Every structure is written in structure tokens, then in C-alpha cells.
Amino acid sequence: MTGYGKAETEFNNKKITVEIKSLNGKQFDVNMRIPSIYRDKETFIRNKLSQAIERGKVDFTIIIDSSEQLPTGKINRSAVEGYYAEIKEIAKILNIDEPNDWFYLLMRLPDTIKADATESNDEEWEKTEHAIDEALKALIQFRVREGEMLEKVFTEKIRNIGVLAGKIDEFESNRIEKIKVRMRESLHQMEIAHDENRFEQELVYYTERLDISEEKARLSNHLSYFSETADNEKSQGRKLGFIAQEIGREINTLGSKSNDADMQKIVVQMKDELEQIKEQILNVL
Questions:
Q1: Hey, which end of the chain has fewer CB within 10 Å, N or C?
Q2: Who's near 35: CB < 8 A, 6+ residues apart?
Q3: pLDDT for res 69
Q4: Total number of domains in the chain
């Protein structure tokens, strides 16, 4: 399920922004981008996120903007001197020109800046943790709103499938009679002599195989179970997926047994409603 939460706080001329984004996923998978001063808090943050979000792909970011122009590191003179000497030697060996802008080149190389080793104090971390909680709260509210939207979609689509299934009754009795007429007409056209009693027996056997009462009953039960599960159970995404598969199986069987153009149209409509349910189940926890 998608979600988004953002919160900001301030501490000693610093603006601390916490941003959390989530997408649906089978497992809990978090990608964290946080300042080095909070590296010792990474496990704590990860546990807090997993308890609140449970599962999904999560992007978590903390950004610190400081209004003060403070130095963030010092030039590593030994590294710069070493790079300078090596580049001059390589240029000489390869007989190529030395760089024109030495300073620009050297300062772009790795480890030429020593970062200041700074740590957050307890008061700053308390502010940051509060911002994390607020961002999580906003994300959960976002997901609740999406969940309410999904509930409306499921309710509507399940109701539509039930209504369509009821329409099948209008064609069921005529369907069997049409099959009988069609079979008799085929025999007459082929001018095949047949025993009427044997024909009736075969007709009964054939129509029994086309009986769809059990499929309709199971479909009705699956629709009710889907609604109950969506209303009453937590973290039911996978279970709803399994129930949707069973609904699809009964709809497919109705289609294969229908042997009637009008019933086939209804089956196609039910399949369309079910596909829309399956698409939205991917967004359910």
C-alpha cells in the first residue's frame, strides 16, 4: 500500500526534515538515507519503521539544513600531495601534458576532504525522533485514506459480481431447453435412427453435467467470505488474493458450462469486475 509522510523540526539553527515513502511489497524492505551523525540510530529507526509499517518497500530520509555556514571538513594535505606527485609521475611516463587547473582536479579526488566527526546530542535526537513519529503518523493516515477508498472499490465490485450471478437464473431454465431442441434438430438433420428412451437418458446425463447450481452456491459463499475478510481481519492482502482466485475459478466454470451466448456475456462482465478487484488487491497489506 502506498503512503507518504513528512515532518519538520528545528534545533540550534538547523532545519531537520523527515520524509517517509512506502509502496506495497511482500516483505519489509527499507532504504535509508540519513546523515552520518545518526548512523548509531539506524537500527532503532529501522525497528520503529517495521513496527509501524509492517511490510512494504520504504524510502526513509532525514535531511539537515543548517543556516550557519560551518565548515564540514578539512583538506587532507597528505592525500592531495600524494595525488599531485602520482599525477606528475604518470604524466611524465606517458609523455602527456600536466593538468592546467591542479586545484580543481585534486579536490575532486576521493579522500581529499576529511569530514568532521560530529555526533548529535540527546536534545537534538529527541527533536528528530519526534519528527520521525509525526512523519509516521502522517504516512499511516495516508494509508488509512487509501484503505477506505479500496474498501469502497471492493464492496462495489463484489456486489456487482453478486448481481450479475443472479442474472444467470433468468437464462438457466431456457438454456437446458435450448440444448434439448438443438440436439434433436441435429439428429433429425443427420437422419439418424435412435431409441427415444436412450436419447432421453443421454440427455439427462448431458444436462446434469451442465448443471451450475453448485458453482453458483460456492461463488456466493466466496463473495461473502471476501467481504467478511476485508471487514474484520488485519493484514489480509494475501488472503483476499486467495479468495479472489477461488471466485475466478467458479466464474470460469460457469463460463465453460453455460453453453449459452447470453450467459457468456454475463460471465465476461463478472470476469471484468474480478480483474479490477485483483488489481487493487496488490495495494492491500
A1: C
A2: 62, 63, 64
A3: 44
A4: 3
